[in-house]
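Holo prediction. Input below; ligand is zinc ion.
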Amino acid sequence: MDDQQRLRYSRHLLLNEFGEEAQERLLAAHALVIGAGGLGSCALLYLASSGVGRITVCDGDRVDLTNLQRQVVHRQESVGRPKAASAAETLRAINPEIHVEPLEERAGPERLAALVRTADVVLDCSDNFATRHALNRACVAARKPLVSGAGIRFDGQVAVFDLRRSDAPCYNCLFAEDADAEDVRCAVMGVFAPLVGIVGTFQAMEAIKLVAGVGETLAGRLMLFDALASHWHEVRLARDPHCRVCGQTRAAA
Ligand SMILES: [Zn+2]
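Structure of the complex:
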């Protein structure tokens, strides 16, 4: 780290539990963020400001006026532009030292698998079950830690699946793909703006702890947040021995 970096990250360096080594690990890390919407916005802002050295942000949508109420990485003048490019511009303005790679595409399973292999930590900030399950499958196969977030109306949730560990549950252990799950769209359901900020920020926090090797992560736990009642609820996650995703992959390995 040079003198400018020591100043920029001085409030991390002052933390006994963080310090220079953790900051160096952060600067050397590559985070993959799928989705630059409400969850991705706050996750990306904190990953960039904290000094995650390389950030890939993947989103195939364009910024719409209805996004600006909660997708705080985008600006009024970005309406109509690709979200990935808009987010990358904001992140570079906050921290020009880091490398931000915008991907203006909706990545399918094969593309996600290739992207996941290059990352140290993966943040699921997507809004549909097809992407969530494809991303989970890719993380299980590549043994990468997955930080999963979701938020709709006043209800949020965040979970960490540290798939570097062989006994870790995966997203499919919790929400099996063949279960009757229907995508609940923000477009019709509404979403309380600060809720996705809280969940996205929580995702950034867990991702940073995972790559910096700081503290105890949320691995193996699901946090549920009720924004109307301002209430957190924690659920312990267990691996499903019959899980079609992590069971098979590990048995074959
Ligand atoms: Zn599983």
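Strands lie at 30-34, 54-58, 99-103, 121-124, 145-152, 155-162, 221-226, 231-236. That is the main takeaway for now.
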